[in-house]
Amino acid sequence: MIRWLLLLLGGALLGGIVHLATIIIMPRTATQDAYSRLSPIAPVNTVTVLPEATPDTAPLPYMDPAFASAVCRYDLSQGSLKLTVPVSLAYTSVSFYTRTGVAYYAINDRAAGRRVIELELMTADQRSQLPEDEEITAADRLIVESPTLTGLIAIRALAPEPGLMPMAQNTIAAAKCTQQNDNKPSR
Amino acid sequence: MRLLLGTLFALAVAALVGLGATYFALTRGAAFGSLTIGTWTAWPKTGTVEADPYARATIARTGQLPVALGDGVSFTAQTDDNGKILDGRCDVLVSGITPAARFWTMTLYNVDGQLAANSVNRYGFTSQEIVRHADGSFEIAVGPRANSGNWLPTGGVERYSLVLRFYDTAVGVSTKAGREVPMPAVATRSCR
Known about the structure:
CATH topology of chain B: Jelly Rolls
Shape of chain A: globular
CATH superfamily of chain B: Domain of unknown function DUF1214, C-terminal domain
Oligomer: heterodimer
Number of strands of chain A: 9
Strand content of chain A: 25-35%
Number of helices of chain B: 2
CATH class of chain B: Mainly Beta
Order of helices and strands of chain A: HHEEEEEHEHEEHE
Number of domains of chain A: 2
Strand order of the largest sheet of chain B: 1-2-3-9-5-6
CATH architecture of chain B: Sandwich
Structural class of chain A: alpha+beta
Mean pLDDT of chain A: 88
CATH architecture of the largest domain in chain A: Sandwich
């Protein structure tokens, strides 16, 4: 009897380890995460406007249907990226996600304080290789460091009323995500 | 023989406990650092690099892109204020006011995170299009049948969740539940 109780206890303890291990490896083994779902429709390093969020066409779960959205699926292995997003009338935001969908940076139109949100995305290595001598100061350039080589940039524009959706779609369709040559500043 | 049986038994218990706990944690949306106000729960840290392993596993499993903290914060309600699970065949009233934000949206999702199909193609409301009372409060009638005022159709789905997202808001990691963050009440009126 005691023998079986001990086995039960040992099994439960081992179960705790199994539980923690599965939770931790889940992001690395998931085949249906946002990046994988978007890979077939979003080419690398270009902005792709996502279909409107409706029951039939939403490419991801839990999308906000009041927003027009676009993604740039990025790969920084060939150099850094430059992102320009025009600001719409209501609310525009740009969010950065790692390969596994963890958000590491976001900025909205008000925080950017301009009519166009301009950002450069690079890895820590690429940033450290930037020449420091130039007069382009940090205030001019907004540099975002990506913790991973690949990931997603989500560009969202709010349509406060359904009738304004085409306008929001047009705004994000004008967003650009372009690869920059390695070790060469853009100006 | 006894040793083999014992080992198999212990391993079976381990698999059951371990995988069962993982399944429950991921389907119930467990993560640390939750902010609960009324029936609404948010995990502000899920939208940051400080997201804990449970939040990361949930993100990977569902395939969603969480609202990043610099963008906004997202509150979810699975039940009404009395703890009754939200049922798409019942009439539910969401009423009150919201914390300060530049914009907010309220959206209805089924258990898989998809929008609920309905005849009027209405999946949610934004703070701009909602009809309000003179004092700024609002009422949203969530139910299967057409309703006057702000009607959010459920499409008759059995279970659903309501997601209230605040954009460009001060509500976040440092927010404490209390008077400065008023959230709307959720009440089930009648079921047929």
